[in-house]
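tokens incoming
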């Protein structure tokens, strides 16, 4: 899983090192990179494994081929996605378009979200984190545990 939060900076060539634990998780899935696209919900970058982006693509494919929603989702997610491969030192090159969406200039946070992670500008994330903590506390009753019967 993608857990914790890590801060890294762009190097002189515009590359950033992906946290080692994130790379190890992706490697265990058989991937040497990550799919990134602008977040719908936040001023951040979504980062997903190949199998996760394939799931969303399959979900889009279940829509009626002539339904405009299919084109909206495919355009907003798939056409905006970049398949970023790790170089020999575990770095990726984020496009200027992605960096602009998240308002990232130099420093960024890699934020674990379980099966995905996000990349944020640190000040923007801190504001979001405070709100998320308050809203999580208010809505904590809606988080359910899965119960399995043991035989």
């Amino acid at each position: 899983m993608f857990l914790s939060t890590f801060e890294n900076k762009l190097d002189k060539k515009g590359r950033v090192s992906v946290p080692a634990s994130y790379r190890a998780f992706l490697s265990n899935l058989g991937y040497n990179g990550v799919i990134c696209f602008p977040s719908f919900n936040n001023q951040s970058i979504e980062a997903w494994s190949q199998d996760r982006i394939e799931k969303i693509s399959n979900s889009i494919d279940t829509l009626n081929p002539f339904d405009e929603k299919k084109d909206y989702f495919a355009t907003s997610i798939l056409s905006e996605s970049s398949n970023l491969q790790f170089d020999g030192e575990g770095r990726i090159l984020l496009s200027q378009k992605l960096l602009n969406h998240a308002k990232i200039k130099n420093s960024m946070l890699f934020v674990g979200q379980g099966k995905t992670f996000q990349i944020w500008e640190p000040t923007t994330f801190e504001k979001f984190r405070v709100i998320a903590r308050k809203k999580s506390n208010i809505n904590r009753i809606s988080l359910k545990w899965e119960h399995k019967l043991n035989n």
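note: The domain at 5-140 is CATH 3.40.1550.20 (Chemotaxis protein chec).
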